Amino acid sequence: EQTAPLKGKKVLVTAGPTREELDPVRYFTNHSSGKMGYAIAAAAKELGADVTLVTGPTSISIPSGIAVAKVTSAKEMYDATLSRFSEQDVVIKCAAVADYTPTIVHHNKFKKKNDTWTIELKKTDDILQALGERKEHQVLIGFAAETENLEDYAKDKLIRKNLDMVVGNDVSKEGSGFGSDTNEIMMIKKDGSVKTLPILSKEKAAREIFEEVMELMNR
Ligand code: PMT
């Protein structure tokens, strides 16, 4: 069917930031609003797919007709994504997952005392890496948010994480990346082809991503 090319296909999208708790009143997070990931989920729905959105805390309302798993931490996002992976046809990892989390989570509010407070962080498990290692039939898409050497760093993520495509995002550019309604993206496929797009609304960028995803699915 022309209007529903993804009918019968299962698409999982991750979106938004994660929150890493330090104590009952404090956490580490980032500037992801969820707009890009939610636009991707909505685009997949429009194309007829059966969509699951794994989302960190955002203030956007969930598009209708989409299954949602709400998570808070990187660990929760890891579990929610990995447990659903085997049944998916396409997974797009747009979430801005914390790379580090506090080694100690205080049960009570940490009291103000000394002039300095040193916090130790440890690496979180890389969700995309774990998916890449377990990939069978799935088309796996990652994002790369960079402030320099975008194409090189994005290509490195594509190969290292065993992706079919990486969407590079120069997050230092005005109107691109975190929080904005627009995004300037570059798509690099595993065959080495590079497609650079002008600044677009996140909805339009999401549709462009699916043009490439559908091509990858038909291979
Ligand atoms: O939410 P918005 O405000 O609309 O902003 C959109 C966005 C800037 C968040 C989005 O376009 C974007 O670039 N998302 C990826 C952000 C990011 O964390 O990039 P990264 O280069 O640090 O990570 C690379 C990839 O690894 C990402 O697909 C990320 O989901 C994944 N990752 C990272 C760490 C981790 N522990 N597990 C992961 O899976």
TrEMBL record:
<comment type="similarity">
    <text>In the N-terminal section; belongs to the HFCD (homo-oligomeric flavin containing Cys decarboxylase) superfamily.</text>
</comment>
<dbReference type="GO" id="GO:0015941">
    <property type="term" value="P:pantothenate catabolic process"/>
</dbReference>
<feature type="binding site">
    <location>
        <position position="157"/>
    </location>
    <ligand>
        <name>CTP</name>
    </ligand>
</feature>
<dbReference type="GO" id="GO:0004633">
    <property type="term" value="F:phosphopantothenoylcysteine decarboxylase activity"/>
</dbReference>
<dbReference type="GO" id="GO:0004632">
    <property type="term" value="F:phosphopantothenate--cysteine ligase activity"/>
</dbReference>
<comment type="similarity">
    <text>In the C-terminal section; belongs to the PPC synthetase family.</text>
</comment>
<comment type="function">
    <text>Catalyzes two steps in the biosynthesis of coenzyme A. In the first step cysteine is conjugated to 4'-phosphopantothenate to form 4-phosphopantothenoylcysteine, in the latter compound is decarboxylated to form 4'-phosphopantotheine.</text>
</comment>
<dbReference type="GO" id="GO:0015937">
    <property type="term" value="P:coenzyme A biosynthetic process"/>
</dbReference>
<keyword id="KW-0456">Lyase</keyword>
<keyword id="KW-0511">Multifunctional enzyme</keyword>
<comment type="function">
    <text>Catalyzes two sequential steps in the biosynthesis of coenzyme A. In the first step cysteine is conjugated to 4'-phosphopantothenate to form 4-phosphopantothenoylcysteine. In the second step the latter compound is decarboxylated to form 4'-phosphopantotheine.</text>
</comment>
<feature type="domain" description="DNA/pantothenate metabolism flavoprotein C-terminal">
    <location>
        <begin position="6"/>
        <end position="215"/>
    </location>
</feature>
<keyword id="KW-0288">FMN</keyword>
<dbReference type="GO" id="GO:0010181">
    <property type="term" value="F:FMN binding"/>
</dbReference>
<comment type="pathway">
    <text>Cofactor biosynthesis; coenzyme A biosynthesis; CoA from (R)-pantothenate: step 3/5.</text>
</comment>
<feature type="binding site">
    <location>
        <position position="109"/>
    </location>
    <ligand>
        <name>CTP</name>
    </ligand>
</feature>
<comment type="pathway">
    <text>Cofactor biosynthesis; coenzyme A biosynthesis; CoA from (R)-pantothenate: step 2/5.</text>
</comment>
<feature type="binding site">
    <location>
        <position position="99"/>
    </location>
    <ligand>
        <name>CTP</name>
    </ligand>
</feature>
<feature type="binding site">
    <location>
        <position position="143"/>
    </location>
    <ligand>
        <name>CTP</name>
    </ligand>
</feature>
<keyword id="KW-0285">Flavoprotein</keyword>
<protein>
    <recommendedName>
        <fullName>Coenzyme A biosynthesis bifunctional protein CoaBC</fullName>
        <ecNumber>4.1.1.36</ecNumber>
        <ecNumber>6.3.2.5</ecNumber>
    </recommendedName>
</protein>
<feature type="binding site">
    <location>
        <position position="161"/>
    </location>
    <ligand>
        <name>CTP</name>
    </ligand>
</feature>
<keyword id="KW-0210">Decarboxylase</keyword>
<dbReference type="GO" id="GO:0071513">
    <property type="term" value="C:phosphopantothenoylcysteine decarboxylase complex"/>
</dbReference>
<keyword id="KW-0479">Metal-binding</keyword>
<keyword id="KW-0436">Ligase</keyword>
<keyword id="KW-0460">Magnesium</keyword>
<dbReference type="GO" id="GO:0046872">
    <property type="term" value="F:metal ion binding"/>
</dbReference>
<feature type="region of interest" description="Phosphopantothenate--cysteine ligase">
    <location>
        <begin position="11"/>
        <end position="219"/>
    </location>
</feature>
